[in-house]
Specification:
Chain lengths: ~300, ~325
Amino acid sequence: MTVTRPAQVTSTPARPDRFRRRTLFARLTPGGRLALILILALAAVAIVGPLVSHADPYAAEAGRRLLPIGSDGHPLGTDAEGRDMLTRLMYGMRTSLIAAVTPVLLSLAIGVAVGLLAGLGGRIVNAIVMRLLDVTFAFPAVLLALFLATALGQGLRTTIIALTAVWIPPTARIAAGEIARIRELDFVTVARVSGAGPVSVALRQITPAILPGVLAWSTSLVGGSIAIVGGLGFVGLGAPSPQAELGSMIKDMQSAVYTDAVLALLPALVTLLLALLFPLFGDALGRALAGRRPA
Amino acid sequence: MLARHIARRTAESLVSLAGAALLVFVVVRAAPGDPTGNLLGPLATDEQRAVLRADLGLDKPLLTQFGIWIRNVLHGDFGTSISQNRPVLPVLGEALGTTLMLAGLATVFALLIGLVLGNLSRRRPRALRGAADVTEAVLLSAPQYTVALILLIVLCVTIPVFPAGGLITDAGPSVLLSHLTLPAIALALPPGAMIARSLKTALADPGVAELAAALQARGVAPAAVAAHLHRNALPAVLPVTGLQIGTMLGGAVFIETIFSLPGLGSLALQAIGPRDYPLLQGVVLLVAAMFIGVMFVADVIAAAVDPRIRKAAAR
């Protein structure tokens, strides 16, 4: 007996579109390209910087407190405890990026799984899952993250767990929305009629089709994640002191706001930059993946 | 029709509220650490702990405890704040005033930003449109505490136009306003951008262009045409606005800290250090209730101005 594979369905249009054949990078808007390059550059600094730099982010010197930008041996000055600002910013970016990206990746995996369950599991399962998710939408994200992080206790690990819990419902909702859009399309029906089981359809047809949209959403979400990680650090719930983290560095520099304004703003500006770059890249990525030309 | 829609949304809101209460209760109970440890200190004997646990009702089944807690909350009894050693309800009441003033002023700013940006992004020179879109994207994603810090440093320290923080409520409205303006602006930026985005989308609807052309052809004045178009956009913009007002009511934690305002956000932070769970529970539950309430009101108004929503709900 011959086993017929489900019909191979590709999305090749009748007439190949030259725009679609260009590399993903070439399809990004100029702003999206710039954002991607800056993100990669900052991530490289955050990863490579601490490896090659011999400076100690924890070496505090009382005599060197709040040195201005451009001081000898401290190109970006020192913080309120005399620690080198550039070194701490590199370590801080690394901590913040890890704490912001990990929950987004986890919630991407879990959210898509929940979305598949809701979108393909039948009407009753869908209703139950959606009602459960709705509960978390009764709180502003910041307050929910704060509440969960408090209940779980201080630390980077709890920040990551709390943020994952906060990001799963919106990600699942986006995934469920995408699934509802493509569930009845011809290529899914073809696969189903050809004898593919529900799990096979979910993994082979549905997931690849919704992934571009969800991926773009998750990329943008890293920006919001950076903002909340910084906020939790700012109120003392993130990485424990003296570990460098952008939010806690903003808090540490608050005492210097009136005397050394520019120096006090540095960690806030880095946080602001990171939080802006990811949504900029995410939007461009979404357009490029959907095959839309830059507007 | 509208009555049925309101009844349905009321039921949904109550279910959301009950779910939120359950979530708050479960999270606090699942938190590591025994509340008797905080109250009695490390030297207490197991017997003393057992007595206190029975006293607090912690030895009863979880579901019974939840029932008791909900009944108390419905009677206005949110428990006793551990750090302030007095009932939670009056503590919440004092902070609520500040938060309502701040969120109210921020709502005004957010609506202004939304109206201006949402309209600019349809205007002709292309550069202006681009500038409006970039501004919207930046406002949307900029963490509020970084913006608050920049505003604080530029407008309170470098050029001291505004007072740097705190709240003076008994020196007349102008002093009060000067203390609330900067934090309200910082709080209003992302919500303003969200409102602008929804307004832009609603105005870009192809049907809107036809409506505008038809009105112009009838000789309606440009200002009146604009009014018609905005009225038409209301059902799409209102739910977004409601959601954003809810966010501003509960999400001002960092801004209240930076500007030393004694609102609900500051209260939540005060509760974090000493693990004052009754107080934290009260703040989170109150915010969730306001959040759900604001969205309910926005939704009902949207249904009142848009018959399509009512009909969809009745089906």
